[in-house]
Inverse folding.
């Protein structure tokens, strides 16, 4: 079994430093590793101008790099750590302040001058926010929309990406460029006609309509991501399967899909997040029945005056699933981010 | 019976292609068609062909030209600041090496937060009277009065203020991509430069940045496209105000449609906006990025 790197052509991969070199040999056997090695090889594509002459192993080069850019002196390192701590505190503080504010009493929320810590810890803002009519329903709507959109993206993107990468046809190349162009379309440009299209087929204000709209964002991204994951699967794998009497579709389903399951998971996370956090389409396409939480959060501003306390509480609650998801799947997310960036 | 590979590949791509044709290409076509009509916002209202009239109105309207410049300014500002901060963080993480890995992950969290939440959060920090930012700067002795800077109410600086949440959300992305690039710089090269007596400054500008060029190009293009489409964070913070000082193109198109009920004009603006984005992105991609120029 060859590694993902051997499968790639030599020149590019010379520049690859796998982020976790000790796993390089088992690149696509387990999910996170498949992710990392593709990430590395994709980074290499963007790095074409950097030519590293020797095909030395990752471990060795990591060692060299340590001597290269990594700071060695103890005093320098201490200063750098202090710098890092300061920037992370500065960076994390706004969100922390949101959380702290959500535990203040509604009056203290807009006290002048504001305090960082709550004078009195209370869940009143949460009770107010979640007790509002439509708030709990909006969570259900958000979840529904995101799940449908993720499923739709995957069902469409997985075969398409496979067709593009495995059979390198002209139409495939045209298609992947078209997907890239789709990424540049301002959502506001298609949101308005899309909303009237949905209305004319009687789908206005439904989670289905909104999830279709969200899929226009996540599908191109999913195709780009999945193409990179398929790229890392050696062709001999399905060839062996077809020799054993599998049809091409059967080989895809039974042999290739299990190998890229890690990549599918990464793609699913991004499709889900794209829908969960999306606001513009939701604003244009939903009224009362299918309103998602971002729209409800925004509406707090006008509909009920300026209820900052409830707004912070609802924003905090809405961010929790995302934070948990990130915590559980951080490695996959890092890989997907890098890939999505480099490709799309 | 076995269908040829070429056709099999086509079959695999067809569902996705159809989806994009129906839900992206067709709406775009409608956008372009609508731009030639004067349309009443009432459903079933009259629809009169007016030729290029909407385009003439767009180009002669101060709001449209203003929004174009603001979008450009906003994008340049966001991308520049993100690049500077992201590079700083990426270098910090690289010089600290593996020991900083967990903090590197923590640094990614803002990327997961909904833009609407980020916009709201920063509005809350910068709002007049009970905004924390002014108060903290006042307590630190930098400002004499907590309300001295009207972050979101002063038309001269509001475009900068509304960009902060965007920068806060996606500097992590810049950092991530640049960090991945830094890992690929061969250490011997840095060593050799050090032995030749290169100081930190020349190391950065003469060795690291030129080597990172392809990665930097990718990061700038991707972020530039996103920043030029910014909508959520600005809408929630200022809704384009005060006096349209933070009204970027997305907001203008949206407001022309929804608030002023002029779908024809909004479509013409949307079409110009779309074409401008595609043109700029195309130039950027083909001159500085060149994806897959010697692959595929």
């Amino acid at each position: 079994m060859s590694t993902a790197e051997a499968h790639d052509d030599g020149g590019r991969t010379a520049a690859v430093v796998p982020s976790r070199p000790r796993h390089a040999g088992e690149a696509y056997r387990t999910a996170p590793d498949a992710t990392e090695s593709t990430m590395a090889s994709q980074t290499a594509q963007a790095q074409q101008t950097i030519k590293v002459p020797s095909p030395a192993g990752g471990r060795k080069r990591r060692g060299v790099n340590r001597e290269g850019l990594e700071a060695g002196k103890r005093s320098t390192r201490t200063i750098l750590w202090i710098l890092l701590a300061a920037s992370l505190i500065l960076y994390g503080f706004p969100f922390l302040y949101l959380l702290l504010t959500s535990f203040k009493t509604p009056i203290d929320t807009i006290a002048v001058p504001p305090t960082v810590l709550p004078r009195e810890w209370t869940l009143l803002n949460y009770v107010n926010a979640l007790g509002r009519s439509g708030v709990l329903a909006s969570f259900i709507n958000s979840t529904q929309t995101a799940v449908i959109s993720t499923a739709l993206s995957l069902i469409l993107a997985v075969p398409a990406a496979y067709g593009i990468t495995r059979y390198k046809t002209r139409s495939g190349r045209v298609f992947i460029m078209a997907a890239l162009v789709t990424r540049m379309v301002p959502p506001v440009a298609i949101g308005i006609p899309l909303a009237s299209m949905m209305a004319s087929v009687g789908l206005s204000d439904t989670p289905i309509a909104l999830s279709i709209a969200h899929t226009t964002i996540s599908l191109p991204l999913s195709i780009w991501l999945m193409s990179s994951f398929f790229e890392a699967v050696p062709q001999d794998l399905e060839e062996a399967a077809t020799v054993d009497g599998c049809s091409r579709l059967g080989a895809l389903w039974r042999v290739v899909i299990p190998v890229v399951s890690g990549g599918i998971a990464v793609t699913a996370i991004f499709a889900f997040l794209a829908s969960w956090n999306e606001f513009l389409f939701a604003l244009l396409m939903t009224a009362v029945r299918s309103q998602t939480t971002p729209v409800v959060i925004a509406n707090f501003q006008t509909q009920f005056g300026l209820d900052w306390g409830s707004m912070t509480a609802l924003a905090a609650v809405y961010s929790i699933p995302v934070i948990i998801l990130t915590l559980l799947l951080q490695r996959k997310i890092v890989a997907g981010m890098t890939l999505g960036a480099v490709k799309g | 019976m076995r269908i040829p590979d070429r056709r099999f590949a086509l079959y695999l791509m067809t569902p996705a292609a159809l989806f994009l044709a129906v839900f992206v290409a067709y709406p775009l076509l409608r956008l372009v068609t609508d731009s030639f009509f004067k349309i009443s916002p009432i459903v079933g209202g009259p629809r009169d062909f007016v030729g290029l009239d909407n385009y003439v109105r767009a180009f002669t309207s101060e709001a449209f030209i203003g929004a174009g410049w603001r979008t450009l300014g906003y994008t340049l500002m966001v991308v520049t600041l993100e690049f500077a901060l992201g590079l700083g963080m990426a270098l910090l993480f690289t010089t600290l090496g593996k020991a900083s890995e967990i903090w590197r992950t923590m640094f990614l969290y803002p990327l997961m937060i909904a833009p609407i939440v980020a916009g709201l959060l920063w509005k809350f920090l910068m709002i007049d009277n009970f905004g924390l930012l002014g108060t903290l700067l006042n307590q630190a002795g930098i400002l004499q009065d907590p309300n001295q800077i009207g972050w979101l109410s002063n038309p001269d600086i509001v475009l900068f203020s509304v960009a902060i949440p965007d920068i806060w959300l996606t500097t992590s992305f810049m950092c991530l991509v640049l960090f991945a690039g830094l890992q690929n710089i061969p250490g011997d090269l840095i060593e050799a430069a050090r032995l030749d007596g290169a100081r930190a400054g020349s190391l950065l500008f003469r060795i690291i940045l030129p080597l990172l060029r392809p990665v930097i190009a990718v990061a700038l293009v991707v972020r530039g496209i996103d920043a030029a489409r910014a909508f959520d964070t600005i809408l929630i913070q200022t809704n384009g105000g005060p006096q349209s000082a933070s009204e970027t193109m997305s907001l203008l198109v949206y407001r022309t449609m929804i608030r002023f009920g002029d779908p024809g004009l909004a479509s013409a603006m949307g079409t110009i906006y779309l074409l401008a984005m595609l043109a700029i992105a195309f130039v950027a991609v083909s001159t500085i990025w060149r994806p897959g120029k010697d692959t595929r």
Observations:
- DSSP finds 18 helices and no strands in chain A.
- Residues 4-68 of chain A form one domain.
- The longest helix of chain A spans residues 135-167.
